[in-house]
Amino acid sequence: METILLLAHTEGDGSLARSAREALRGAATLHKSLADSKLVMGLVGENVQAAANSIAACSASKYYGVVGKDFSQARYATDAAAAEAICKTAQATLVFAPATSRWNRVLPGVAQRLGGHADTHVTGVSASGDKVTVNRWYYRQRMEAVLQWAQRPWFILIDPGSQTPCQCVGGSAAVEKVTVTLPDSAKRTTVIGIREPKADAQTIRPDARLLFVTGAGWTKKQADGQTHVPEAEKLIRDFLQLSRASLGSSKSLVDQSGEGQAILSFLSHLNQIGQTGATPRHQKGLSTCCHGEEPHTVGWRFVAERRAINLDPNCGWARGKADVLYVADAFAVMGKVNELLAVKK
Ligand SMILES: Cc1cc2nc3c(=O)[nH]c(=O)nc-3n(C[C@H](O)[C@H](O)[C@H](O)COP(=O)(O)OP(=O)(O)OC[C@H]3O[C@@H](n4cnc5c(N)ncnc54)[C@H](O)[C@@H]3O)c2cc1C
């Protein structure tokens, strides 16, 4: 019999992140299809009652919590101690957690301590009889593997964005406290602050429906023989403000900053989509002034509906990479789109 544990930490305001609800969906779905399995929750944070209450209507039979100020911040030593204690108390055999940077770096170590196995970046879980199978991608999302392990506990870290979040409603949950005694050495690291871009400079929005990709064409000489970078910058900025899309880029465009050329000031390597960039999950994608070469479009694997605007009818997008290719000047198209969006607002 499998004991399925959903492991989550609370956010700064005591709530559960969407990624935790996605992992919960994976755990609860597996619980339904695995006969004789048990689903339990393990929560870590300064105070976990509100988080437990927020998912009280789910099918978990028990809630465990490691609570206290020492567990409010992301820190390897305390997160690992908390996870280890909950796993042991719950006697978990399958441990689900969101594949956030916090859990991804901690849980493989906990698996090692418990003699188990960990898979990060899991995108699918299923059961056939009593056999559990997970899916994950390798080689920059080019190959999908289907894996089974006999080893327990098996830590399954669910990639954020790959599941529909669990919609279970709230109620009142009884949380059993799990005591963890920390040595002083576990508290040496302290988070003294968080540096992040200002809200309006934050262009990467994983929850946006649309991914808007900019390519090097925005900075190239146009039909009049001139570059129009300030104009490009304004069109892109206006579009992002009006649409709240997430901003992606080709490698060529983000690399230009390193080569001392005119660039769009709000782009960084974090925006890069592709083989050496990100593989985000958005319902729709619109590529502009980007050629659509394979090392770039491999990062579009999880974007469902794809459109591109390019002056070149023979660009990569025309070769089966996009559902719709507009052979047009992106400056003109995006200018018109912004006008229409502004009227709609
Ligand atoms: C090992 C390796 C890894 C790589 N990893 C990545 C990666 O992760 N991500 C990535 O993006 N690339 C990656 N690349 C690079 C990739 O092969 C391409 O060089 C890059 O994606 C090209 O960027 P681009 O399409 O923006 O620029 P370009 O190829 O210069 O294309 C610009 C496009 O803009 C169009 N254009 C110009 N003006 C307009 C206009 N007014 N309206 C409409 N269209 C216009 C042009 O027709 C042209 O198609 C990698 C390459 C290698 C070798």
Describe this structure in words.
The chain is α/β, with parallel strands linked by helices. It contains eight helices and 14 strands. The chain has helices spanning 18-33, 49-54, 76-90, 101-113, 229-243, 251-255, 294-297, 330-344; strands at 3-9, 38-45, 62-67, 94-98, 117-128, 131-138, 143-147, 154-158, 175-177, 210-214, 246-249, 284-288, 305-310, 324-327. The strands form two sheets. Strands 7-6-5-8-4-1-2-3-9 form a nine-stranded mixed beta sheet, sandwiched between helices. Helix 5 (229-243) packs parallel to helix 8 (330-344). The longest helix is centred in the first third of the chain and has 16 residues, at 18-33. The model has no long low-confidence stretch (mean pLDDT 94). Flavin-adenine dinucleotide (FAD) binds at residues 215-217, 220, 222, 250-253, 272-277, 289-291, 293, 295-296, 299, 309-312, 315, 329-331.
Count of extended strands: 14
Largest sheet: 9 strands, mixed
Please, how many helices? 8
Structural class: alpha/beta
Distance from first to last alpha carbon: 55 Å
Bound small molecules, deduplicated? flavin-adenine dinucleotide
Strand content: 15-25%
Average pLDDT works out at 94
Write the element-wise H/E pattern from the N-terminal end onward: EHEHEHEHEEEEEEHEHEHEEH
Strand order of the largest sheet: 7-6-5-8-4-1-2-3-9
Shape: elongated
